[in-house]
């Protein structure tokens, strides 16, 4: 024993004859489906983009100019702007392997704060807007703290926060709507996101532009800044991220706070969209935003997907809604098709993940 | 000679279990110190204590004669201690480059970096490629491929390269060859010697006695939460080492740890 133990190389001698190279990255042949799979793995937002383009083409073929006009297509943008903005916030949270059920409630609460601070307390509208944005960020911070420091599951935290914020919203606003004319006369800045401008038949609103710019800025931040890489790493494997030097707590706090802030902006955009400040509006924003994110190909398990996908996801829902309505179909068909899309999107996500093997 | 990394009287309890029981630890400059011990002896806890992943309940740690107080792996890393964990601590969906630079990304120069916080991808990719090549670890076609598309050995290689590239004072390797084949293990052992030749001391935790006896300058035998003895691999056989760590044999008086 003591003889052989002094020569630890012995057992390796047998392997000497075989080729010396190890750990090479050979480019083995994948076949067509394999290539497609690999390509989608690199570009996760491509699937929803293909679905979106296909949906536009199909409805365009069926409906002709009625659908395929600048007016109708930009109408879709206007209809999805709220969901699109909220879906951007939802995407960030879902990328960290969380979920935010309170997005809709934060949005409504912020819009109510903006309205009530202006009309109940007589604050300058701009200050009231800042207060609304601050409230949204603060609620997000509470969510982030409970998830990151107290280590509660995001689903539970935001399920609770949803109820709390929604109830607070009704209690505080006394279920009272601020009418559109009143806002228009006294605080037009609250309706800023509803301002329209016309480009050759295409109608854009400030809210639509805000949604598009927001998504582009977030896409840049997620891809080209250290913060963005950390968001993905935390969603992928928080323990590994912590060990390899990411401040997981700070990353989670920043994501939930930013999500709250974006939802507050959505609240401002909501006033522009519906004209009034109504505590009962936007009740489905959480489910609709999750739908957009899932159809957009962001994995609910975190760490995978692109925020552009969420925008495409929101637009797909918008195209289906408007297209089917113009076709005169029952609105339930929209929900049925969206339901199928959700399941298909997750199935594709699972398939793409297998590229790892 | 003064140890570069020194632990004294370290205690760590998890509930009723005492994982570290007034344990001492010394790493000399420029050496490879192997830490061996039976499962449950507290090796991992010891390593976590010196790498910042766990904060000891009692005791003190000195790095280069200065007392240090690590509360997270980031603290230890900033002090120059790099650790390759057994789990590798990599984000599978991110690229090799992203993983190598996780938590210490390079930003662009000028306003692109300072205002827009843009990452300097070309510089990071070049650095990652250079480091992997320099260590002779692998020939890479695509430095931007996701880590999850690599084999176990390749992932290990990237993790070791990351530690070797950034570790300035101490490198800790936790079971670096456990998941590897014979040839890939050889590469990692060569890599360990290579890092040592650059003067950086290494702590190696391993169950593989032939590997330990091949590369280690000294062997720290851990038993029941404390340092049993420190032996020179030239003076003892592998079976002696196993006998010490399982308690089958009393350690020699002159090597016994205080």
Automatic annotation (TrEMBL), chain A:
Keywords annotated in UniProt: Cell membrane, Membrane, Transmembrane, Transmembrane helix
UniProt keyword Ribosomal protein present: no
Record membrane topology: Multi-pass membrane protein
Keyword Membrane tagged: yes
Region (Disordered): 1-20
Gene Ontology CC terms: plasma membrane
InterPro entries reported in the protein's UniProt record: ABC_transp_permease
Chain segments annotated as transmembrane: 46-65, 72-95, 126-146, 152-172, 199-222, 253-272, 284-301, 307-327, 334-352
Subcellular location: Cell membrane
A Pfam family per the record: BPD_transp_2
An annotated Gene Ontology molecular function: transmembrane transporter activity
Protein name as catalogued: Mannose ABC transporter membrane protein /fructose ABC transporter membrane protein /ribose ABC transporter membrane protein
TrEMBL record, chain B:
Domain of life: Bacteria
A GO term for molecular function: ATP hydrolysis activity
Keyword Nucleotide-binding set for record: yes
Keywords, ordered alphabetically: ATP-binding, Nucleotide-binding
Matches recorded under PROSITE patterns: ABC_TRANSPORTER_2 (PS50893)
PANTHER family in UniProt: CARBOHYDRATE TRANSPORT ATP-BINDING PROTEIN MG119-RELATED, SUGAR ABC TRANSPORTER ATP-BINDING PROTEIN
Name of the protein in question: Mannose ABC transporter ATP-binding protein /fructose ABC transporter ATP-binding protein /ribose ABC transporter ATP-binding protein
Lineage: Bacteria, Pseudomonadati, Pseudomonadota, Alphaproteobacteria, Rhodobacterales
């Amino acid at each position: 024993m003591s003889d052989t133990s002094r020569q630890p190389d012995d057992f390796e001698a047998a392997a000497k004859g075989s080729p010396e190279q190890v750990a090479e990255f050979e480019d083995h042949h994948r076949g067509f489906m394999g290539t497609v799979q690999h390509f989608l793995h690199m570009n996760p937002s491509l699937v929803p983009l293909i679905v979106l383009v296909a949906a536009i083409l199909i409805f365009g073929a069926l409906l002709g100019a009625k659908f395929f006009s600048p007016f109708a297509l930009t109408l879709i943008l206007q209809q999805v702007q709220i969901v699109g903005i909220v879906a951007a916030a939802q995407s960030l949270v879902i990328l960290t392997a969380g979920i935010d059920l309170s997005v809709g409630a934060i949005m409504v609460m912020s819009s109510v704060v903006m309205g009530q601070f202006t009309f109940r307390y007589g604050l300058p509208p701009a200050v009231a807007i800042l207060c609304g944005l601050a409230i949204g960020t603060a609620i997000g911070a509470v969510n982030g703290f409970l998830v990151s420091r107290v280590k509660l599951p995001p689903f539970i935290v935001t399920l609770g926060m949803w109820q709390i914020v929604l109830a607070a919203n009704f209690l505080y606003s006394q279920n009272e709507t601020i009418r559109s004319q009143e806002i228009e006369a006294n605080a037009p800045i609250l309706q800023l996101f509803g301002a329209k401008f016309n480009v050759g038949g295409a109608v854009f609103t400030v809210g639509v532009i805000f949604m598009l710019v927001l998504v582009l800025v977030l896409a840049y931040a997620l891809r080209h800044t250290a913060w963005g890489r950390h968001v993905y790493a935390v969603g992928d494997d928080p323990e590994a991220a912590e060990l390899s030097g990411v401040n997981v707590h700070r990353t989670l706090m920043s994501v939930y706070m930013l999500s709250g802030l974006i939802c507050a902006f959505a609240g401002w955009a909501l006033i522009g969209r519906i004209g009034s400040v109504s505590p009962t509006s936007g009740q489905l924003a959480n489910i609709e935003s999750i739908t957009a994110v899932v159809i957009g190909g962001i994995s609910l398990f975190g760490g995978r997907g692109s925020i552009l996908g969420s925008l495409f996801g929101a637009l797909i829902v918008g195209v289906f809604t408007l297209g089917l309505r113009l076709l005169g179909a029952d609105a339930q068909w929209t929900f049925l098709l969206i339901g199928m899309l959700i399941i298909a999107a997750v199935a594709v996500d699972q398939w793409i993940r297998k590229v790892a093997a | 000679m003064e140890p570069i990394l020194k632990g004294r009287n370290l205690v760590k309890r998890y509930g009723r279990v005492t994982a570290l029981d007034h344990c001492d630890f010394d790493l000399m400059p420029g050496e490879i110190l192997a830490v061996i011990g039976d499962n449950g002896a507290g090796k991992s806890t010891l390593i976590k204590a010196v790498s910042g992943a766990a904060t000891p309940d009692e005791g003190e740690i000195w790095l280069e004669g200065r007392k240090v107080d690590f509360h997270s792996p980031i603290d230890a890393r900033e002090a120059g201690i790099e650790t390759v964990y057994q789990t590798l601590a990599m984000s599978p969906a991110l690229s090799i480059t992203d993983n190598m630079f996780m938590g210490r990304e390079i930003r662009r120069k000028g306003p692109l970096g300072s205002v827009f916080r843009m990452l300097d991808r070309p510089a990071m990719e070049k650095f990652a490629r250079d480091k992997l090549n320099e260590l002779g670890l692998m020939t890479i076609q695509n430095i931007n491929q996701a880590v999850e598309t690599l084999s176990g050995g390749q992932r290990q290689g990237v993790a070791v390269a990351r530690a070797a590239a950034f570790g300035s004072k101490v490198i800790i390797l936790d079971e670096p060859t456990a998941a590897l084949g014979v040839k890939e293990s050889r590469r990692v052992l060569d890599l360990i010697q290579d890092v040592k030749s650059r003067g950086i001391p290494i702590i190696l935790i391993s169950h593989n006695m032939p590997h330990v006896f091949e590369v280690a300058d000294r062997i720290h035998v851990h038993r029941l939460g404390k340092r049993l003895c420190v032996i020179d691999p030239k003076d003892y056989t592998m079976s002696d080492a196993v006998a010490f760590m399982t308690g089958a044999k009393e350690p020699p008086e002159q090597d016994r740890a205080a």
